[in-house]
Amino acid sequence: CAEKGVSICICPESNMFLIGKTIDVEACRKHGVNLVIGTDSTMSGSTNILTEIRRFKELFPQVPDAEIFDMITGKARRAMMLDSSYGTLAEESPHLLLMAPHRADPYQNLLYSDMHDIELLVYNGTPIYGNAAFLNHFEHNTADYFFFNHHNQQRFVIGHPEAITAEIDAALGYHKELPYLPY
Q: 12, 128, 145, 172: which sits with the fewest CB atoms below 10 Å from its CB?
């Protein structure tokens, strides 16, 4: 795989649930395979990438935290053949993930974070998720956002997922809990 430039995506939660094991991470590391961490279906895996990161660290504690960070940033950018504005920390980047600081080490902070720790997520200069107080720093149309309370904070998400969940509930005749939605 390394010789041919193939990237491999590991979804450890799903792999363990479905088959009870996952790829030989040490062999991939030894041979220089572009190994990335991803998510699979919530039916067989976790609810988000943050859960997959924690599961990966649990299964492979020997992998340095900085390398895990690279697996979800730089290596993921290469695997998806995205331009250099992705997967890097650069002042001119139009993308930003701002996490609540719970640990002094930034890699540790990310490894042990969850959805409620995301303070702000910006994509192409547009805020798409986070603490509602951050929207005051951006030009925005309030009607484009859904606001909700989560972990005692007013949060926002771009779009209107509540309309979609209302349609699902109406079709089912009951409220369907969707674990990946934080409201």
A: 172
